[in-house]
Amino acid sequence: MKAPLSLSVAGPSVRQHSPALAAAATLVVLQVGVTLLRPWPLALAVDHALGGRPLTGRLSSLAGMEPAELLMLAGAASIVLTVVDGLLELMILQVAEGAAERIGTELRATMFERAMTRSLRWHDRMRSGELVSRLTTDVGRVLDGVVALTTSFLPDAVTLVGVLVLLLAFDPSLLLIGLTVVPVLAGLAVRQRARIRAAQQAARTESGRLAGATTDLLRNVRAVQAFGRIDHACGEFADRNRAVLEAELKAVRVDARWTPVADILLAIGSALVLVVGGLSVLDGTLTVGELLVVSSYLRSLYAPVRGLTRLSAVLAKAGASATRVREVLECPEAVTDRAGAWVAPPLAQDVRFEKVGFRYEPDQPVLDNFNLRIAAGETVCLIGPSGMGKSTVLHLLLRLYDVNTGRVLIDGVNVRYCRQLTVRSRFAYVPQDPWLLDATVAENIAFGNPAATRADVLEAGRNAQVDEFIGRLPHGYDTSLGESGIRLSGGQRRRIAIARAVVSYAPMVLLDEPTASLDPRSAAAVVNAIQTATAHRTVLLVTHDRDLAAIADRVVSLAGPELRDRPAKPPIVTDLRQTTAGGRG
Ligand SMILES: Nc1ncnc2c1ncn2[C@@H]1O[C@H](COP(=O)(O)OP(=O)(O)OP(=O)(O)O)[C@@H](O)[C@H]1O
Predict the structure, then answer these.
(1) Which CATH number fits domain 2-329: 1.10.390, 1.20.1560, 1.20.120, 3.40.50?
(2) Which residue's CA is minimally distant from atom 17 of ligand 1?
(3) Which Pfam families match (predicted)?
(4) Is the pLDDT at 193 greater than 70, yes or no?
(5) Is 393 a pocket residue for ligand 1 (Cβ < 6 Å)?
(6) Cis upstream peptide for 570 (omega within 30°)
(7) Gap between the Cα atoms of 110 and 142, Å rounded
(8) ipTM computed for the complex
């Protein structure tokens, strides 16, 4: 069967939890046995108490009992069997659903870690919302499939056969007696429904929070990678993930408890029918056949809990979802470190681009034979028309992408041979869109350096001129910014992003259009912040802003096929097509 095979996507976790799933399957087989035993009290009543057949063999110990006593015994046995059946159902649901939720928790964590380490080329194609839906809804459907396969198939088949047999005959006269339990059942059902709904809603709320946090982290994957904070992101995700597990397990418990309660009530109804109906048979006012049919019919009211048709739908959905989950888990695209990769040099001499060629798409070159040297301590401004590849230059320095041809060197060492995290630790990155997290101002600044103390954060804030507006926020540095820092102006957000770069103490600062779309006053504040914050560091800044370009030692123009380089003050143009690098590599 195609769908179950495709569920192997959850394989490693399923294997890990196979003892629990095997236990659930064993319980299911036991439950089927109990289900098969359940008509026997009826047979005892019909054949021996009512039909007068002698009690021989295993039943000989009951030989001295009066028919009415035998009926009572049969009713009690029926209740006991139903209680056992209900308890087995409770255990099956808890064991199987509990194992499934744990498998889901592990599957989600593996997928998330996988996504966090995939290359940005892959993230460029995969929309974060799509990824969230795969992580949540699709994993959920795979789990539905695992549970349905373990617990539903066998009992559903037995139930179906049972209902067909019981419906062979029909008499409604005793049905009313059996239905006396229905008002109680209905009252309990209404109360239970409210409980189940509340538990499910709590679980959905946690799932929503998980989706929100995940979208936030995935949207900020560049920052997470650039600042080497993958562990922090995975930790935050794990907390939310655990909250979902707890909420889901609670919902499972509430749901599972309901099944035996309903079963017991229906069994009492059936027992009532058995006793009263049996007494009526003894009085001669009811036939044995009528009694059998009504008892069986009552039981069948609750039997079709899960239909075989529903199982095939669940498996079909699970199969489709498993394919989408597998696409994430088995995606090979990643910027990888070679075995024995080095620690990146400290950036004491320079960074260089040597004959660099790069393309995002196979047929669209962005950089071709690009050469640039930036000496340690120098501030270089990269200008040029939109779309020429200025931001791309910064991405290549961070090794967010690997170059197609040529080399990017730090102190003469090719970054391709260095561990990604160590390369990224050499740079403090202020992206065009200052990615702010749904956290406080201080937490957003400290994102640039996990080891930063409160004093470091405050000093970075001072240097980046966050202090200038922090007093207007209700809780100062402890003000929560909301998703994407929506509570701040563009200039304020940029200054927080600059403070984040300052606190990292990386030797080189990369700034991508830090004054873009700001009014002159905000732009001036940001330029001031940059000047203070980047003192004594190597800087590469991308900008269209003349005032900002004026703080650079040198301006490099990425203009069309021509690459030109000129000092900012006074402007002299140099042809950058001649290779500027020449050291080790
Ligand atoms: N993730 C991506 N996938 C495919 N193409 C991309 C991607 N990012 C950028 N590009 C393309 O690469 C080229 C260079 O983009 P880049 O952002 O580096 O330009 P830019 O000079 O910084 O532009 P701007 O000044 O508008 O920010 C553009 O043509 C852009 O469409």
Answers:
(1) 1.20.1560
(2) 391
(3) ABC_membrane, ABC_tran
(4) no
(5) no
(6) yes
(7) 15
(8) 0.96
